[in-house]
């Protein structure tokens, strides 16, 4: 790799997608190996599973968590819980690399001292999607949510504060980090069905980390 390539590779594009929503393109790339290793350790103890919505639908995205609490869904509703309902064990603790990445990304977007207590880990296989929703099971909407995309790229839908507001599509690629705060924090959003593909590190899947301050 020559000098030019290495400069291009480390170039940091910060793009405001919408008021409060800052894309740090490729921000997580230098940490890709450590992040993937950490996810492997988490899923060894808390495997990916398909949650059921309160309406009784099995989600196409598989999920797990790390941190003090994890997001769970079942027939009784959505909540953050200290324990994995499948094992009864506390969720795996949040790796230092995760907490540090989230803190640095939020700081770069103007949110100082972001200390998430939950990290929801989503796994998309081809065809998996996330319908338009708001994230409002957290108590503190002043804190942003930080998302990290790994593996295959996805088309992300970003709307407004009402479900029927027009949506804009963004491509989220491996290593991209987005900080969702301010007036973006309660915006409707979703993910289009994942297209088939092959990522050199993660194969035929996309993994998304979302860091949340729940209290
Ligand atoms: C905008 N995850 O876990 S990440 C979710 O790619 C979720 O797995 C998607 O939506 C995924 O809840 C999208 C981007 C994202 C995450 C949270 C947000 C965008 C957001 C919260 C508020 C506004
Ligand atoms: Fe969400």
UniProtKB/TrEMBL annotation:
CC terms in the record's Gene Ontology section: cytoplasm
Q: Which cofactor does it need?
A: Fe(2+)
Q: Where does Fe cation bind?
A: 133, 135, 189
For this protein, the record's Pfam families field holds: 2OG-FeII_Oxy_2
GO-annotated biological processes: oxidative RNA demethylation
> What are the Fe2OG dioxygenase domain coordinates in residue numbering?
115-215
The entry's substrate-binding residues are 71, 78-80, 137, 163
Q: Which UniProt keywords apply?
A: Dioxygenase, Iron, Metal-binding, Oxidoreductase
Q: Which residues bind 2-oxoglutarate?
A: 122-124, 206-212
PROSITE patterns noted in UniProt: FE2OG_OXY
Q: Does the keyword Acetylation apply?
A: no
- Coiled-coil segments: none
Give the NCBIfam families listed for this entry: PRK15401.1
Q: What is this protein called?
A: Alkylated DNA repair protein AlkB
Q: What's the source species for this entry?
A: Afipia clevelandensis ATCC 49720
Higher taxonomy: Bacteria, Pseudomonadati, Pseudomonadota, Alphaproteobacteria, Hyphomicrobiales
């Amino acid at each position: 790799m020559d000098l030019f390539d290495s400069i291009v590779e480390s170039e940091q594009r910060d793009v405001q997608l919408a008021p409060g929503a800052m894309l740090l393109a490729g921000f997580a790339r230098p940490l890709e190996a450590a992040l993937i290793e950490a996810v492997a350790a988490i899923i060894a103890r808390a495997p990916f599973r398909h949650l059921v919505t309160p309406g009784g639908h099995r989600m196409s995205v598989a999920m797990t968590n790390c941190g003090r609490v994890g997001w769970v869904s079942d027939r009784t509703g959505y909540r953050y819980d200290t324990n994995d309902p499948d094992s009864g064990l506390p969720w795996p603790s949040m790796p230092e690399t995760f907490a540090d990445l989230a803190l640095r990304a939020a700081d770069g977007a103007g949110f100082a001292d972001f200390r998430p207590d939950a990290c929801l880990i989503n796994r998309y296989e081809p065809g998996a999607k996330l319908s338009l929703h708001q994230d409002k099971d957290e108590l503190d909407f002043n804190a942003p949510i930080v998302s990290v995309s790994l593996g295959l790229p996805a088309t992300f839908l970003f709307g407004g504060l009402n479900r029927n507001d027009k949506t804009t599509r963004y491509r989220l690629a491996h290593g991209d980090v987005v900080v969702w705060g301010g007036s973006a924090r309660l915006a409707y959003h979703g993910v289009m069905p994942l297209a088939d593909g092959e990522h050199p590190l993660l194969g035929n899947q996309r993994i998304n980390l979302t860091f949340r301050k729940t209290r």
